[in-house]
Amino acid sequence: MKTISIANQKGGVGKTTTAISLGAALAQKGQRVLLIDLDPQGNATSGLGFARQQEHAAYGVLLHDRPLSESVQPTATTNLYLLPSSPEMAGAEVELVPAMAREYRLKTALAASPYDVVLIDCPPSLGLLAVNALAAADLVLVPVQCEFFALEGLAQLMRTVEAIKQRLNPGLEILAIVLTMADARNRLSMQVIEEVHRHFPQLVTRVRIPRTVRLAEAPSHGQPISVYDPSSRAAQAYADLAQELSMRMAASRPIAMEAALH
User: Could you tell me how far CA 220 lies from the centroid of its own chain?
Assistant: First the structure.
């Protein structure tokens, strides 16, 4: 099993869209995929057609030691499963503070889970929920929006990942940076792409996710893009991204963070 945290403390960069769409693409390749919605906003939960008033959700797993198997929900996409968020997650950051082994609650819950890939949709912060995700993960996937402030905060995220690696999770590595909302007709978008490539040449994926209306519409229908519009450019992009990331994971261990930054 590979556990991948999809993380960026900036909001609106495509974390949830990537979590849903990549999860569906991997599931369609025959892998058993669990998507964990750790964001109190619950967008991955609603984006897959689930209500947030779930009795069995991530909150119970993290705070009350509820077994993962009692909380995971099958989705309409074969091989794709969801550990949903719920309104109680809004207080989880505070409630985790006095909890024993608070940084490892999710890691403990995932022990011996029967999935090929676990994707964790992190909240747009670097609090205890994100720390739980990074402490449980083997790899980090970083979505970066192709807009003006793309690099803002990226260095901070890299430092946080390095700190988690040193103190909580020695095996943690960056899998890749994926550029989202790319528009080849937009000069600024292309400049951002060049800048990210210049700073992180070994980490940026070959596949970019285009800005499309159909991709923005899909969550309102409770479907991943591969179901909502399987012939769209975005669906093809996420299928290609799933293939590229699978090859990265199979070929060799991901690039060490120290090497990636030089």
Answer: 19
Per-position b or e across 135-161, b if 16+ CB within 10 A of its CB: bbbbbbbbbbbbbeebeebbeebbebb
pLDDT at 262: 46
Cα diameter, the chain: 51
Q: What is the 3-state secondary structure (H, E, C) of 98-167?
A: CCCCHHHHHHHHHCCCCCCEEEEECCCCCCHHHHHHHHHCCEEEEEEECCCCCCCCHHHHHHHHHHHHHH
Q: Which of 122, 236, 215, 185 is nearest to 193 (CA)?
A: 185
C-beta separation of 114 from 147 below 8 A = no
Q: Does domain 2-257 have CATH number 3.30.70.920?
A: no
From CA 6, how far away is CA 29, in angstroms rounded?
A: 20
Q: What does the pLDDT look like over 18-61, one tens digit per residue?
A: 999 999 999 999 999 999 999 999 999 999 999 876 777 999 99
The CA distance from 180 to 160, in Å, is 22
Q: How many CB atoms lie within 10 A of CB 202?
A: 15
- Which amino acid belongs to residue 11? G
Model-wide pTM > 0.85: yes
Partners of residue 112 on adjacent β-strands = none
In the chain, where does DSSP find H-type helix? 15-28, 43-47, 58-64, 68-71, 92-96, 105-110, 128-136, 154-167, 187-199, 213-217, 225-228, 233-251, 257-260
